[in-house]
Design a protein that fits this description.
With 198 residues, this protein is mainly β. The protein has 2 domains: 70 residues, Roll (SH3 type barrels); 112 residues, Leucine-rich repeat, LRR (right-handed beta-alpha superhelix). Helices cover 5% and strands 44% of the residues. The longest helix has 10 residues. It starts with 7 loop residues before the first strand and ends with a strand.
């Protein structure tokens, strides 16, 4: 018997391999897709909270069941929280219902040659919209050839946000935000080429 009692956001807590999403609950259920370790998913119902119970969720549009053995409950985001997503850290600015405003806090991939600041991303049942870029956001980066700002919701860029970047690094921004973002980037103290993204 499944119920909404255990509904919420959970992190995949396998040791290394993806967690299998199955068509029906139980180890004999047909495998549909693997969900990567550390991914946060939204669970809408569970068969209970015991280790042999199952949770109903979806990943990349595919709905199915995963074992509760490998799920770790995730607390709701709150102001000031640091959230890891793909190759960056984000800082929660505000939360309204299931909508979160966040700052791009730090690029965490030191080997990358390019970085992308997304418009938004979904983590569990929450949608995060990127509205600012924090100071020293690229201090952990290696030599980046470019930084692409996909977000059209940026309202502030902190001083020294791009301080660690090579002077040849190109900042790519949405065409309709080119003028506004050029001003924000200049105010941050950066002397980098800013162009519209292709």
């Amino acid at each position: 018997m499944f119920s909404k009692k255990g509904a919420g956001d959970y992190q995949i807590a396998t040791e290394s391999t993806p967690l299998t999403l199955r068509k029906t609950p139980g180890k004999s259920g047909i495998p549909l897709i693997g969900i990567p370790k550390d991914m946060v998913i939204a669970v809408t119902k569970t068969s209970g909270s015991k280790s042999d119970d199952w949770a109903y969720t979806s990943y990349k549009g595919i709905k199915g069941y995963v074992s509760m053995d490998f799920l770790k409950r995730v607390k709701a985001p709150k102001k000031g929280d640091s959230i890891a997503y793909e190759d960056a850290l984000y800082s929660v600015i505000s939360v309204s219902g299931k909508k979160v405003k966040a700052a791009y806090k730090k690029n965490t991939d030191a080997k990358a040659t390019s970085a992308v600041i997304p418009d938004s991303f979904i983590r569990g049942s929450y949608t995060y919209t990127i509205t600012s870029i924090s100071s020293k956001a690229f201090s952990a980066s290696g030599k980046l050839d470019s930084v692409e700002i996909k977000s059209e919701s940026i309202t502030s860029i902190s001083k020294n946000a791009f301080k660690s970047l090579d002077k040849k690094t190109i900042i790519k921004v949405p065409e309709k935000k080119l003028s506004k973002y050029k001003k924000l980037i200049k105010r941050s103290g950066a002397k980098l080429e800013v162009s519209k993204k292709a």
